[in-house]
Amino acid sequence: MRIAADFALLSPTELATDVVVEVHGERITAIEHGRAGACDSAVELLVPGFANVHGHAFHRALRGRASLGADFWDWRSSMLAVAEILDPDRYRDLATLVYRELLLGGYTTVGEFHYLHHTRDGSPYRDPNAMGVALVEAARAAGCRYTLIDAAYLHQAPDHGEWAPTEGVLRRFADATVDAYLARTEELSEGATHRVQLAGHSLRTCTPSELVTIAQAARRGWHLHLAEQHLEVEIVEAALGARPVALLEHAGLLGPELVAVHANAATAEELGTLARHDVVLCACPSTEEDLGDGPSPAANFHGLGGRLAIGSDEHVLADGLVEASRLEAHARLASRRRRGLDVAALWTALTAHHALGWPEAGRIAPGWLADLVAIDLHDVSLAGVTPEAIIQITTPARVVRVWVGGTEIVHDAAVERRELAPRLDHLIRTIWKEIP
Ligand SMILES: [Zn+2]
What is the pLDDT of residue 252? Predict the structure, then answer.
């Protein structure tokens, strides 16, 4: 297959004009400059597919329901009500449509931070990984590359410094012990387009020593919700005697294999510690806005030499370019200056497939996976904008076509957006009707 592009972003710092990208099987085999020879497709701007490094598919059901609560903790109650009623079949149906929406937003690799493991009473399904398997099937049906980030949720958040066993819907999340968690996740298989990573849900639900066990077992890196809310940090500090970053550093858990999700409640000193240890920080700006987490410190972290990734988390937004532009906006609003994240830093963060265990994705170069996104530049909102700078412009729905592993997965995004809308709308409304 040969794709001709007026412009192609070969790497975060290299925009080429008049390029032909040659693909055999799932890989890119050659880049030709100039437009000689016949081509199968012609596009305006070709960019590497985006990596959605952090998300929870079922949170999509809460989009547009901000009136459900005054703060993060009220929102969390609504989120738990949705979690209460999902079973593997329903979750597969929902996730398939959600992942399809993410593909339409340019995300060719989806990372699912998965903690909804068990039946309503907390006992395991006959296949203890039934929910995770349903999610993998959803990704396969949607056509995205996928990483199931299976998260350990071992305790109820400590109250006044005391740990307690999980109660109510939280029992659906919990494995009995860290060893039970590892035994369960050991049974998860990988495939040509899906891989498995481990995670601790947070320091509210896993102790540092349990996280050490998880990190030691992780072959493709591991993830952790780090410091999204100040109250969350205070709960951890009251229970464990120190803030999350200090606890992780003391336990020897900071390193390049850790993807820390959210650092809105981290101090400047803590950001420096994370950057020094080469931790990847995954920012989720649209969710951090929606939940009132405060601005992302991504630009400060980048300035300290830290590596960034991007996630859409609760999927209040499903558009990689807009998500990245929000990260830039956070930087400017927080600093009251115009210098935030430059264009190359934003593209680097949006294509951080390595954080999902796919280091061979994210570039348009021979040998790399042919995960590609074609972008429409002929919109009045982009008139006068240089092609690589579109990542700074908040104009949605510019993705036209999407390839994953050399296969065209989305042929006409505008048409599919209209087709997908009633299906996802119906499913989400059905879910809410069932919530008491
Ligand atoms: Zn999350």
Answer: 97
